[in-house]
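Shipment paperwork, digital attachment
Item: protein structure file
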Amino acid sequence: MDKKLESVKVYWETLSSAVSDQFKDHWVDDVGNPIEDRMFDEIADYIRKLLPNASGPLKILEVGCGTGRVLEKLYEANHEIELYGLDFSSSQINAAQRRLEDKAKLFVGEVGDFLNALHMQTSDNNFDLIFTHGVTQYFPGDDYFETFLNTCYELLSEGGSVLLIDAPIDWYKELMQKGSDSRLYTAKQFLKSIIPYRKSKIKERIGGVEFTTPVFEGYWISTEIAERCAGANYEKLVMEFQPFKSKPISYRRFRPILIFKRKLVHDASMELT
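Attachment content:
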């Protein structure tokens, strides 16, 4: 496993093992209390609006499902949806299992591991939607992002979609970090360049529990790379601002939603008619 990805995995295993279930998702409000269910209701409502009209049961996969709070909301709205959850933290999946019981099929691993496991069971993948929420910032780099989208393509049905919610975009990064005082930002960057020391561990306090986790760099998606990936296997990339009113404005402003829709296979016989 990539070293950066291994640090992220250790981070989530440490966090999830240290705190109670209500804090395992790491979503807290301005005073440190767990985010209310309203945010997960909003996300589930948004996802349902993107689902295609189909005669049979729909199949949805959440990559980085954590404790399964969004999957739970999707199930509450429609018991007929076939739900799958994937997370490389076994502690998170254990929490999701306690929450969801038999409402979803849960797996530990990366999306590539999941694809291989499905191929061993059946060749009928045909997911109508694969989504992430607050996950892409943990990707180790561009190559992983491209591999992720290519793997999702293998899992999707024709016309199926990949939905990346809360996805940091590189050209928002400078705006977010500079804020209203660009001189302060420049000074901070200069200090970082002349001080060789860099922390490899950080202490966090969540839900009244203090623990030490590894530090890792966040990933910011390049729109050029996203558009190139979209051009290969997907229809044109769609970018939307997050509409979730229960989220802090900084997330909604600087972390948009990306939607990739799998291209329909062109039927050459249609040209002969």
